[in-house]
């Protein structure tokens, strides 16, 4: 019996707690693999110190040239490995825990890596809207950090990212247009519940992670109700199909 | 022994004749499957009449609401089926000719459909450049048609799509940036010769089709020499690996 993997995620004020698309990808991956894990919740300003302390690799570079650190990170006490980056974590889980569901059927790693780009390309139009709304569901220390860093990136106030009204309506319209493409890809799966058909894969971690973010941030809004009905209810049905892999442990 | 499939492609003034990315996808697919086929060359102004004559489905809608027709189209005398659209043709070939190489390994249709979106998204920055240069290698009747329709779409003269100099250099820089992403996906394939690793698939028809177009239109130019050397020579090596499937029959 293996010891639980430590999974570092970013908390929120919501009852589900988990919200970030990038950490949701890892949460789905862990649940799909069925490996024991437990979540340690880390506020944004504490991520860098944690990563350095446990020896997690950086995932990028800041404007000043120094390394940047992001969640998800996992720390596997069974192997002593610390892994950053959702895709690298999924690869690690398949390689280290070959039992249970397979995240990457043979030959699909390049396609699933590209799929992530496709999904972001298709529904990236709501990124400013999603970031703005995400800010408000964070705990105070994360909210302060998130606001400062995202406002620096976009060069404007969070409140100006996607103001309610015509601007936000246009962002939703872009999302709907993008989901037409995703619906077209999905419809090639022979009618199965998951991206690749009847078998779940990391492609579901990717698409599920993004859609979970949209649902969680907009839940109970008219906008989500609207999106949930698009394409014959495909997106709400899909998230329901992923529910067995959506446990927040 | 089956009769050869009739494959309708668009000719050019180049010695290789075949040049279009969309028909190259089908040519790769036919060669990968190893089914007998022969090419019938059709100039742009003759495509619609041909499609109507043989009962090929339309692939879109014109601005005036009437159906539009595009190549590739195949006409399979063994089944009496006429199929339009490169992806639908690839699906048809796998379903009808299950022997030989498999274009879509189980569950990969949605991923390969999305992959096409990813590739176009990544290297679409050189689309205006590619269209402009493609115009000049067409036969007179196709060139006149191509110029008129593409100039109407972009609202400017072909010569203004990507003028040599700073504008064109910027288009190449965008292509290079986009190919960084494709290189990242490709590098997940375990070092194999093809997108999915050691086994060829329709993902290679897609990526090969686009890269073949770039190479054919720019061959012997400094720009292609430059691109061929990017990413450790990945792209020229890749097209060489696809050469056994690049016959123009």
From TrEMBL, chains A, B:
Describe the location of the GST N-terminal domain by residue ranges: 10-101
| Gene3D superfamilies for the chain | 1.20.1050.10, Glutaredoxin
Q: Which InterPro entries match?
A: Glutathione-S-Trfase_C_sf (IPR036282), Glutathione_S-Trfase_N (IPR004045), GST_UstS-like_C (IPR054416), Thioredoxin-like_sf (IPR036249)
Molecular function terms in GO for this entry? Answer: glutathione transferase activity; maleylacetoacetate isomerase activity
For this chain's UniProt record, which GO biological process terms are given?
glutathione metabolic process; L-phenylalanine catabolic process
> Which superkingdom heads the taxonomic lineage of this protein's source?
Eukaryota
Biological source species: Rhizopogon vinicolor AM-OR11-026
Q: What is this protein called?
A: GST N-terminal domain-containing protein
